[in-house]
Specification:
This protein has 90 residues and is mainly α. It is built from 5 helices and no strands. The radius of gyration is 20 Å and the shape is flat.
């Protein structure tokens, strides 16, 4: 907390996304050397499109839920005067 506000910053560790998990999986499948590098690049390139597709699907599900009469309770759940989300979202 700084000047009454929560400050969020990187812990100084680089974000490698799913790199470690991808490498472990590929090594367990027997990839090595140049073949490992090429397969890693191929698999890693699929991550962002897959995540973007998941986000789009979640957005569509949320829109459909609202159309069916479900109430958006985000503000009710997270917006508390003076809270972290209050300053960003509410």
């Amino acid at each position: 907390m700084k000047n009454g506000e929560w400050v969020i910053r990187s812990a100084g560790r680089p974000d490698h996304g799913f790199a470690t998990e991808i490498l472990k999986d590929l090594v367990s499948q027997g990839y090595e050397g140049q073949q490992l590098i090429e397969e890693f690049e191929r698999v890693q390139a699929q991550i962002r499109p897959a995540v973007e597709e998941m986000i789009a699907e979640a957005d569509e599900m949320a829109r459909n839920a609202l159309k069916r009469g479900h109430k958006d309770r985000t503000a009710e759940l997270f917006c508390r005067p003076g809270g972290l989300v209050w300053k960003i979202y509410c």
